[in-house]
Amino acid sequence: MIPSTTAPGGRSSTLFGQPRGLTVLFLTEMWEKFSFFGMRALQVYYMIKQLHFSQADASLVYGLYAGGVYLTPIFGGYAADRWLGRRRAILIGGSLMALGHFAMALEALFFPALTLIAVGNGLFLPNLPSQVGDLYAADDPRRGGAYNIYYVGVNLGALLAPLVCGTLGELYGWHVGFGAAGVGMCLGLAIYALNGRYLPPDMPRAVAAPRVAGSKTGSFLPLLLVGLAVIVFRSAYEQSGNTLAVWADTQVDRHLLGFLVPVTWMQSLNPLFVFLFTPLVVAGWRRAATRGREPSSLVKMALGAGGVGLSYLLLALVAAGGQTVAGKMVDGIWLLVFFALYTLGELYILPVGLGLFARLAPAGMGATVIAAWFLASFGGNLLAGVVGRGWDALGPSGFFVAMAVLSGCAGAALLAVAPMLRRAEA
């Protein structure tokens, strides 16, 4: 029997066996990611084809913007914890993002629009997931899988965005696509604002501040080490949209039933497998939790890093086989198998890490610590770009082996930090 959950404020209403607040946060995040990735699907093409940027300049602007959206959450999380509160920060941040998307309709406002989106994202990004854990009692067995369910919302928005905003932008004009992204953000804000009764209340800042010096402050060093390990992991993980995309475009046979599958469709495999595997993973963890046998967060994360490493080893073997015969293309089925293993590993590390940072955040600093988790995304993306420069020198097979080694090293580092984290939690 599912135990009833009483969130702060006495809310115990459930939907599909989970707190209704999780559905609210899920849908809000889905529409936010729809708007965010919808704009990104068009951004580079818009700069080159409409604003007549050179490819180099467009790439630079894109990189600066992508980095900025993972830096601003540090300031947004601190502002929410210290002054604004999470709900107000989300509403202000979402409004700024929607305004930025609509401002993209005017070419003269391109850079101010990007600034609005980056600043709004800084207020929005760390504060929404920091509320997930507060929906559950500390001993609720559903809590371990809550962030994986939330993660599905992220991927659902990311999957729909290029299909809707990208198609509208290409068929009916860039500004229609950007406008659709803005509408998506407004829908997410409306869902969040109208369903506040299902969400945990903000802790008053005046009460929260003195509690920061509590028992959880000892977890800062372990969390820092976890973040560094995740940066190394992401340097390999983020190659799916970088060097792996190049390999898929040039060396993978993508013919299916006489039809050449567009290489961009490859990016939909990851969110598709997230949808398929998440219910199975969460159900497995929940059964293990009821028996007292659920692995710790860092063990899960280490297993996830190892799983991604295995997926890259598989590609290394496949690529080596393809290189033995000149001009031979790799069967596209191997790409499908790779993404199945890769996504299963991802589900064990990324949403689990997000939940770990939220759970160990000192009282009154939840959004700030969540922002630190996203800072690892910033570092990992930058390092992935540096690592990707070794593609030509190593060749596909050698490069994939290197990515497996990086993932394995990250997993080993996470296991090494586990005893320190247990002592900090004791």
Element layout with pairings:
Elements lengths: L13 E2 L2 E2 H30 L5 H30 L1 H18 L6 H15 L18 H30 L1 H21 L10 H4 L11 H18 L5 H9 E2 L1 E2 L2 E2 L8 H22 L6 H27 L6 E2 L1 H28 L5 H22 L3 H35 L1
Parallel strand pairs: 3-6
Antiparallel strand pairs: 1-2, 4-5
Subcellular location: Cell membrane; Membrane
Membrane topology: Multi-pass membrane protein
Protein name: Peptide MFS transporter
Major sheet summary line: 2 strands, antiparallel
What's the helix count? 14
CATH top level assignment of the largest domain: Mainly Alpha
Taken together, the total number of domains comes to 2
Structural class: mainly alpha
Helix content: over 70%
* Estimated radius of gyration: 21 Å
User: What is the CATH H-level superfamily of the largest domain?
Assistant: MFS general substrate transporter like domains
Q: How many runs of DSSP E, i.e. beta strands?
A: 6
Q: Return the CATH architecture of the largest domain.
A: Up-down Bundle
Low-confidence stretches: 1-12, 206-215
Can you write the helix and strand succession as a string? EEHHHHHHHHHEEEHHEHHH
Report how far the terminal alpha carbons are from each other: 29 Å
Globally, the shape reads: globular
Report the portion of residues in β strands: under 5%
How do the strands of the widest beta sheet line up side by side?
1-2
Membrane topology: Multi-pass membrane protein
InterPro entries: Dipep/tripep_permease, MFS_trans_sf, MFS_Transporters, POT_fam, PTR2_symporter_CS
Protein name: Peptide MFS transporter
Keywords: Cell membrane, Membrane, Peptide transport, Protein transport, Transmembrane, Transmembrane helix, Transport
